[in-house]
Amino acid sequence: MFRKIALLLLVPFLSLLYVAGASNFAPANLRCEYLSNPLGIDMPNPRLSWFLVDKRYGARQTAYQIVIGTDSISVVNGNGSLWNSGKINSDNMLVSYSGGQIQAFTKYYWGVKVWDKDGSESQTVIASFETGMMDMKNWKGAWISDDNGIHIKPAPYFRKEFETSKKITSARVYIAVAGLYELSINGKRIGDHRLDPMFTRFDRRNLYVTYDVTQEIYEGRNAIGVLLGNGWYNHQSSSVWNFDRAPWRNRPTFCMDLRITYFDGSVEIIKTGNDWKTNLSPVIFNSIYTSEYYDDRLEQPGWDTVGFDDSKWKFANLRQAPSQNIVAQQLHPIRNVEKVSVKMMKKISDTRYIFDLGRNIAGVCQLHVKGEAGTEIRLKHAEILQGDTVYMKNIEEHYHPVNNSDPFATDIFILNGKGEESFMPRFNYKGFQYVEVTSNKPIVLTADNLNGWFMHSDLPPIGSVETSNPLINKIWQAANNSYLANMFGYPTDCPQREKNGWTGDGKYAVDLGLYNFDGITVYEKWLADHRDEQQPNGVLPSIIPTSGWGYNLMRTSSGEHLCANGTDWTSSIAIVPWAIYQFYGDSQLLSNCYENIKRYVDHITDIASSSGLTDWGLGDWVPVKSKTPKEYTSSIYYYQVVSILTKAAKLFGKNDDLTKYSTLAAKIKSAINEKYLNKEKGIYIDGNQTELSMALHGGIVPDELKAKVAANLAQRVEKDGRHLDVGLLGSKEILHALSENGYADLAYALASQDTYPSWGYWIAKDNATTLYESWTAIADKIGASDASLNHIMFGEVDAWFFKGLGGIHPDPENPGFKNILLKPNFVAGLNHAAVSFKSPYGLIVSDWERTNKKTIVYKVTIPANSTATMTLLKTMNIKNIIVENKGEIVLNKTEKGYHFPAGKYIITMIQ
């Protein structure tokens, strides 16, 4: 028994030990549901994945064996009480569990061993996963809240004491909340998550979180404390999006089971009920949209510890569950990821200070301060500094307060006067660079008294771009900053003025996200939100999750009808699952969304013209100057969604659908070309950048006209002074349309431009550390209403660095980078580009350097169990290729290009 306990403590390190001990090869990076050793898994057939560590050329997996059981020693020895797959002759490294029925509240150890290209067998590497509730019927606790209504501002405390009398083996907390929470046991905050649980459509699906609290439970008397925040459930602030009128709105509520397993095998459950006590907390106001107020004079020291006098507290009230669908939160959580120090502080007076973080972030600031009791300190957050005052108008445009009691992005901290005090919001975040601190009594502050915390979903970084052009490097970093600043359990558009899950913004940034971060868990959660929000007729709202806003038409001041939930936005229901399939080789999300995509397509077909065109959409949002017909752009996205549905039907063997939607796709494409293509001139409509780019990269242009259309696009870009003339839709396509059709140098010229309008203009002119919402944001940011300085929608340039410079593409015929399509572009004006990406098979490196005018040295790394096909455009004028081969591997040149088995290669190319 003691040997088993000792081994349990070592399990997290066994994978590393076995890899280090293997002579040549071993599985590594074992994950369940794309998480490392997760707790609280609800899936009856969880996905298990790994990759192969094998540095030999041509390394590949020829077979694998998985064993699963509850006894770690047995699993290490290759024996599984729950499942033993036996030796499977396959190179699969993503496998869904298919053994006996998985039980709730059980820790399973799973081991995998593999056979290499020579048939040799590796050692077994093990990991673990632990199941959670698995079924709603397993909950024992009741949903509880206090007896206050939605307009009572202070956040509620809840507490309960309990006693254990036996030795504890393990303890787990399962907590589901409508709203937000912080959990503590015996005075210690549990976990490092922020803003848990993630935002969902609360009346249709709620998430619960699992914690291992074995070390926090004492033998004897214990106390649990829970502080509830409003979040999006009890939205306090009024705005355009109507979350304050959401159909689910109510006072925050929660349900919790603390499941304690004793050394003798018995189980005790400490559960929520009306025997819990509740009282109001010092968090006297909290709004996820605006701010948070804390009165330190109202502190109740020890409220979450044993022996606290709660005789004046009330008993909790029982509440109905917000929904009948309570499921595990299986995704990377939000955390305080990076501490950001103050770059500059300016004292205006002894009651007003300005702090500059030197960069735009999403998150909160933390203040340490001394002062008299009752001193009220206000912390106003903004992106723009105008003189000695923070400027708010660009971010408060959509905020429509009913009174002055909830100033936008302004926290309030009231001191108790007992020495140094600290404040950091618990249930709020903001987008900001500057903080204006004011007080009603004099205080003394230095730059060390305040710091920022960059908060976001803590997605593991997996991509890297480094070039010889510092501007390109800064654009890449700014795009990543904006992506992370808009990732809070779902992708948002901006972290200050909206915080909405705009389907278009999230969809347009998906490739950026998947090249740079391991984001599948968040996207699977967000697409579940899509399925929750879709109406029976297939219509989706433009923001997801939503209070109900976004299903209807928008109307401009000129009376024009715009549909923010049309094909150019809500095609996220198809485009995101397809991207996940391409990047991970995992079709589960695509399968889960298949019927939703069908309903969506069928609705568009119902409202489209008889010819096959639709104007359901928003159009090329915020263009520079040229405008593109909305029917044209919407119909192209209609075609793309139908094309994805056709490919999914083929993948899943749905032959009737394949026939039906293949015919529909052909009809739409034909209708677009019939109405908008001038075959003689080789242009669409007026031949502006968006019109030509979308046709080229959207698969609309007939093969025989691609070269002509691409040449016209290049000419148009030259005519526009090698500057952008696109809106959001065109910005997604133009760089790819150029580089994939022989004009990579011109694409790079656009990507590296540093004058208006361009991505680099924001950085060169304004020292931007994030991407902006409009090309004119710099000129308009004082006095403009539409100038967020932290938006992700123009972020496709980041993904182009991976595809256009590094040339790293997924292969649609071998998704998940089982085979890598390498299409590097050695562009004029750039001497070096090093691009890397950690695929499901391991690290891919595409690194090229121009050593002289005619010679390029190209370094390539292909991970084990993967291959690559390299193709070079004729326009590169490569006359000679010298490959430094190692081992017995020789590159094969096929009709599709040079074929690379796994390994590291140095290739010299002579132009």
Keywords:
911 residues, alpha+beta, Immunoglobulin-like, Jelly Rolls, 5 domains, 10-stranded mixed sheet, 6-stranded antiparallel sheet, 19 helices, 47 strands, 23% helix, 29% strand, globular, disordered N terminus
Q: Which descriptor suits the 3D outline?
A: globular
CATH superfamily of the largest domain: Galactose-binding domain-like
Sheet bearing the most strands, described? Answer: 10 strands, mixed
Give the structural class: alpha+beta
Q: Could you list the spans in which at least 5 consecutive residues all have pLDDT below 50?
A: 1-22
Q: What number of domains?
A: 5
Task: Give the total of beta strands.
Answer: 47
Helical residue percent? 10-25%
Beta-strand residue fraction: 25-35%
The end-to-end distance, rounded to whole angstroms, is 68 Å
> Can you give the mean pLDDT?
94
Number of helices: 19
Q: What is the CATH third-level topology name of the largest domain?
A: Jelly Rolls
Could you say what the CATH architecture of the largest domain is? Sandwich
Alpha carbon gyration radius: 28 Å
CATH class of the largest domain: Mainly Beta
Notes on the protein architecture:
This protein has 911 residues and is an alpha+beta fold. A hairpin with a 2-residue loop joins strand 11 (180-185) and strand 12 (188-189). Helices cover 23% and strands 29% of the residues. The chain has five domains: 2-130, Sandwich (Immunoglobulin-like); 139-331, Jelly Rolls, CATH 2.60.120.260; 336-457, Jelly Rolls, CATH 2.60.120.260; 519-678, Glycosyltransferase (Alpha/alpha barrel), CATH 1.50.10.10; 819-910, Maltose phosphorylase, domain 3, CATH 2.60.420.10. The model is unreliable at 1-22 (pLDDT under 50). The longest helix has 22 residues, at 630-651.
